[in-house]
Specification:
By secondary structure, this protein is an alpha/beta fold. It has three domains: about 210 residues, FAD/NAD(P)-binding domain (3-Layer(bba) Sandwich), CATH 3.50.50.60; about 90 residues; about 120 residues, no CATH class. The protein contains twelve helices and 19 strands. Strand 18 and strand 19 form a beta hairpin. Bound molecules: flavin-adenine dinucleotide.
Length: about 475
Amino acid sequence: MGKKIVVAGAGHGGLIAAYYLAAAGYDVTVYEKKAEGTLGYDQYDSVHLDGFELAGIPVPEEYRVKRTPLSFILPGLELSPITQGVSEDSYNVEIDRRALCTILLGLAKEAGARIEYNTKVRGPVMLGSRVAGVETDRGVVYADLVIDAAGLYSPVRSQLPDYLLIDKEAGEGNVLSAYRGYFDRIEGIEAPELRYQVYLLPGSDCGLMWVITHEDHADVLIGKFRPLEEAEIEQGLKTLRELNPHLGNNLLRGGKVMKIPVRQPMGMLVADGYAAVGDSAFMTIPIKGSGIGYSMRAGKLLADCVQADKNGCYTRDTLWKYQCDFFDNIGFDAGTLAIIKSALPKVSREDIEYLIRENILSPELLQKFGNEEGMAKIISSMGFGGLRDMTKKIVGHQNLRKLILSSGKAVAKYAIVRQGLKAKYEPKTAEKWTRSYNKFYDSLNSGAEDADEKPEEKQDEEA
Ligand SMILES: Cc1cc2nc3c(=O)[nH]c(=O)nc-3n(C[C@H](O)[C@H](O)[C@H](O)COP(=O)(O)OP(=O)(O)OC[C@H]3O[C@@H](n4cnc5c(N)ncnc54)[C@H](O)[C@@H]3O)c2cc1C
């Protein structure tokens, strides 16, 4: 039998890693707290096709659909909604979450992984500084490697010793509370022309709501970058019904509030005997919370890295390749979007009105965000002329000018931080990089970035 690998929680990335590693002959067991047949949420999800393709997972034809453009609306604004551009050959995967879980569990199981349902992981088992297994409600399980795929509130990640530099929590303001419910449609009332309506809630109320209209039901989401009160959900539903007379009162599916990490990916993904993947490492697109695609791709990168460790050591040193591959392929792009996300609470209603009116928030720009491109790619694709025109318009607006200047400065500092991640593992450099990355976001989120602080990496170099 191959080396023993424990996957804590049947998250998407963990199942992809389990599939590849079991197929390669490793002894893989997934411990999942829920019962068989109950995994996932009672909802449909939209996943970028890349997530499947780069993870090497075939997409069943029935789930592959042409992308539908989202229309962004500022409630109460007289301007027309702004509709995202979508190219003709652009496809998404639209899939019932429970069906997706069943497919991924099936792949892992067929490849030889064991799935232990109804088993709650309580925390890590440490042997010195190495993660040597997990404690479950059925006893202790030792392993050569623990893959943490237990999601946002992973009990493994949150109980690791501080000196491993792995974040315990997502941090304040970094979790989107999302209510999702599927409602009936009121008979005799026509559906709106725009089927995918996203309502922006800028300022202190920062968040979004959507109504996606289907043949026989409407999919509703109410999300805020802080805990949602019951009264806010009621108020949100009331507002959405006023704006959408076809939206019925009868809840058909869902109706729960769930949490999504919306921040930069964790700065340190690995330790001796441990690797985090998916929501447990905060691997979502920070401005919208989609995480399935990133999680699946990261699961494949992790499986490749584990297989490359021919001696089966699974130390931070041999798992460092996963850390670097993740950041090079996904993490740094997500990180630039986290800079935009940190500016969102400072964007007022009036600012958004200006952005729409001046065509800065244009269908093309929204298309690029929809393509899940990082900010560097988005900026370089605008070309000199496009950037110059946008800058001219923004310079004429006081709050936006301030915001863009501070975001621009943050992006420049981020580029310096980014360079500090070296492919060759060396403990001191790796720790220094993680501290510098974490410090960068801490100061960004606390507003200290505006106060012209330099990232640690740069300060050290100068010293
Ligand atoms: C309302 C909503 C809508 C979303 N829409 C989209 C979308 O359209 N597209 C998209 O890409 N993403 C979407 N997301 C985000 C997406 O759900 C996550 O990013 C994605 O699931 C990746 O997380 P994961 O697989 O790592 O973890 P999870 O999906 O959280 O899975 C973790 C697994 O671990 C198990 N577990 C947890 N704790 C324990 C424990 N102690 N012991 C054993 N097992 C445990 C859980 O039961 C679960 O099975 C949405 C999220 C929400 C809440």
